[in-house]
Amino acid sequence: MDGGTGVRVLRRLALWVGLPLVVVLAAGWTWYRVSDTGKRWRYEDRLSSYCGGVLPVEETSALTGLGTDSFRNDLRRGGSRTYYEFCWAADLYVTVSRIPGGVRDGGLSENDLRFYFPHEGAHALPSATPLGGGWRGYTDVQNTVAALTCRDGGSVVVTAQGDGVEDDDQAPGGRARVGRDRVQRLADLTTATAARAAERWGCGAKVPAGPPAPPAVSSAPEPIPLLDGTCAGIDTGQDMLVDWAWETQPDRNALEEHCVLGTWQTPYQGDQEGRLYSFSASYGPSALEERLRSQDRLDYEPRHQKSPYRASAQCPGDTERARFSVAPYDATPHDKKFATAAFKAFVRHAVERHGCGDLRLPD
Questions:
Q1: Overall pTM surpassing 0.70 (yes/no)
Q2: What is the DSSP string of 65-126?
Q3: Looking at the chain, which terminus has fewer C-beta neighbours within 10 angstroms, N or C?
Q4: Same domain, 145 and 102
Q5: Do the beta carbons of residue 63 and residue 90 sit within 8 Å?
Q6: Which residues have a Cβ under 8 Å from the Cβ of 114 and sit 6 or more positions away?
Q7: Domain membership flag for residue 7
Q8: What pLDDT, in 10s, does the model give residues 245-258?
C-alpha cells in the first residue's frame, strides 16, 4: 500500500470513527442541557459552591425549581469567630450565620452580629409562630428563622426572608391568606440549611430527628374570651379598651414569643393600628441580638430613666439571659397600671413555661 492509499484509509477510518463520536457527544450534550437529570446535575453542581455550599438541594429546589438564574449576590462576611453567608435564591434572601459562645468575654458588639433577625413587621400580625417538631425558631410568614446550639455554646442561625402570603387569595376581612404549603417549605429550608451548616462548620449541634411542623398561621386577630397561649395569665378585664388578642401557642424551643392586645376602636390593618400592647420575649441567640442591639440605648441610661417594662431571666441551655419587653420601646401605654400587671403576668408565665430561673422584674 503506497503512502497515498494509506492516507485515504486513515481518513476513512477517522470519518467512520469520528462521526459517530461527534453524534454521541452532541447527543450527550443535548441530553445534559435539556433532560431533567441533566438539569439536576447542573443544579447540584452549582449549589455545591453557592452560598458556602450550605444550601440543601431538596429543600432549595422545592422553592426555586431546578433553575440557577436567581443564584446571585453570594457574599461571605465576618472573621474567624463570627461570620455569615448571604445569598439570593428565587424570591428569598437567605442568611446563614455562625456566632461564637462566650459572648461576654468575646466583646461582641451590635455590628459584629451580621446575622440578623429581621425586624420588618416583627410586631405586626401574624408574628413569631414556633417551627415545631423540636426545632428552635419561628416564622412570622414573611420571615422564617431557625437556630441550632453548638457544642461550645455558640449558634448557627438561618434566616429566610420570603413572603408566605398568597396575594391572589384573601381571608375574611380583606386580609391576605397565608400560604400554608409555602410556610412549611420555608421552615424545611431553614432547618435543613442550619443542619447542613452546623455539620460543615464543625458546630457539633444536636439536630432534631424529624422535620419542622409549624402550626396553621392565622392572619387575623381573635376575640379574647380565652387566652391560653403566650397571653395566658393576663386579666384583660382590667382594661375596657382591650377587644382582641393575637397570641401563639407556646413552645419550649421558641426564639421569640409575642402577645398582642388591641382594640376595635382603631381598625386593624395588619400593622400597628389598633394595637394597644405588644409584649415580647426573646431567647437564646435572639436574646443576644436584642441585648446588643439595644445596649447603647438602654444599658447606659440613668436608672431613673429606665423603662419599667423590661425584665430578664436565665433559661436552661442558654448562656444569654432571656429578655422581655413591651414593644415598641417608645410606647406609652394609656393605662400604666394595667400595662405593668399584664407585663408581669406575661413574663411570669413565659418563665414558668420555659423553666427559667433568676427572674429579674422591674420594681
A1: yes
A2: TT--TT-EEEEEEE-SSSEEEEEEETTEEEEEEEE-S-HHHHT--GGG--S----TTTTSSS
A3: C
A4: yes
A5: yes
A6: 77, 78, 82, 83, 84, 97
A7: no
A8: 888 778 889 888 88
